[in-house]
Design brief:
With 267 residues, the chain is mostly helical. The protein has one domain. 58% of the residues lie in helices and 6% in strands. The protein contains 9 helices and 5 strands. Strand 4 and strand 5 form a beta hairpin. Belongs to the Lgt family. Keywords: Cell membrane, Lipoprotein, Membrane, Transferase, Transmembrane, Transmembrane helix.
Length: 267
C-alpha cells in the first residue's frame, strides 16, 4: 500500500511569482499539441496543414479549453459554490477544470477557426482528435500532483492502493493515474494509429468521442464522483458519466454516417 507524497503544488518561485505544477501540465499539454500536430501534418501532407496553421489552431484551442473548462466546472459540477464565491471562478491555478466544458469550448473554438480560415469543421476536428489525448494525460498527472480527484476506497490488498492523508486513512484507487493511462495514453495510441491512413470525413472525430466517452465512463467507477448537477439522477451514476452518454451516442452516429459517405475523405 502506498501513500500519496503530497507534492507542493508550487513547482518553483521566481521573485513574487509562483509557477504551479498544474499550470506546467497545461503548458506541457499545449507543447505536445504543437509537436504532434507538426508530425501529423508531415505524415499526412494531403490534409493541407502547416506549422503556422497549427500555431493558430493552438491559440483558438487554448482559449476554448480554459474558458470552456472553467465554465463547465462552474455550471456542471459546483454551481452553488462558485456562485457563492464568484471571485474564485477565475482562479484556475487552483485546479477545477471540467473536461466536458473544455470539450464544448474547443468545439466552439474550432468552429470559429474553421470559419475564419476557410476550413470545414469536421476537417478541423478530425485533424486535432489524435493530438488531444496526451494533453488529457498531462492534465490528469496535474490532478495527481495536486492530490485532487482521488479514487474510491479499495481493499488494502491492492498493491497500488494509495492513502491520501488529507482525505482520510482509507486506501483508495489512484484514479487520476488510471485516467492518464486510459483517456491519455491508450486513447492516443488508438487515434494516432487510426488517423495515420485516410479515413472518411468525421470518422476520426467519431472514434475520439466513442473512445473518450467509454473510457471516462469506466474510470468513474474507480473515482470518487463529483456531486454535479446530475448526481443522484440514477443511483451509481455520476454527472460525468451522464455527460459521456451523449458523447458516445453522437460518436456512434457520426461513425455510421461517415461510412455511408466513403467518398468524403479527410481534407
Amino acid at each position: 500500500m502506498l501513500t500519496h507524497p503530497h507534492f507542493n503544488p508550487v513547482a518553483l518561485t521566481i521573485g513574487p511569482f509562483s509557477v504551479h505544477w498544474y499550470g506546467l501540465m497545461y503548458l506541457l499539454a499545449f507543447t505536445l499539441f504543437v509537436v504532434l500536430g507538426r508530425l501529423h501534418a508531415r505524415r499526412r501532407p494531403e490534409l493541407g496543414w502547416d506549422g503556422q496553421q497549427i500555431d493558430d489552431l493552438l491559440l483558438y484551442g487554448v482559449l476554448g479549453v480554459i474558458i470552456g473548462g472553467r465554465l463547465g466546472e462552474v455550471l456542471f459540477f459546483e454551481p452553488a459554490y462558485y456562485f457563492s464565491h464568484p471571485l474564485e471562478i477565475v482562479q484556475i491555478w487552483k485546479g477545477g477544470m471540467s473536461f466536458h466544458g473544455g470539450f464544448l469550448g474547443v468545439l466552439v473554438a474550432m468552429w470559429l477557426y474553421g470559419r475564419h480560415h476557410a476550413k470545414g469543421f469536421w476537417a478541423v476536428t478530425d485533424f486535432i482528435a489524435p493530438l488531444v489525448p496526451t494533453g488529457l494525460a498531462a492534465g490528469r498527472i496535474g490532478n495527481f500532483i495536486n492530490g485532487e480527484l482521488w479514487g474510491r476506497p479499495v481493499s488494502s490488498e491492492l498493491p497500488w492502493a494509495m492513502i491520501f492523508p488529507w482525505v482520510d486513512a482509507l486506501p483508495r484507487h489512484p484514479s487520476q493515474l488510471y485516467q492518464a493511462a486510459g483517456e491519455g495514453v491508450l486513447l492516443f495510441v488508438v487515434l494516432w494509429v487510426y488517423a495515420a491512413r485516410p479515413r472518411p470525413l468525421r470518422a476520426v472525430s467519431a472514434v475520439f468521442l466513442i473512445g473518450y466517452g467509454c473510457l471516462r465512463f469506466a474510470a468513474e467507477f474507480f473515482r470518487t464522483p463529483d456531486p454535479g448537477i446530475f448526481a443522484g439522477l440514477v443511483p451509481g451514476l455520476s454527472t460525468a458519466q451522464w455527460l459521456c452518454v451523449p458523447m458516445v451516442a453522437v460518436g456512434i452516429w457520426l461513425l455510421a454516417a461517415s461510412r455511408k459517405a466513403p467518398g468524403a475523405v479527410q481534407r
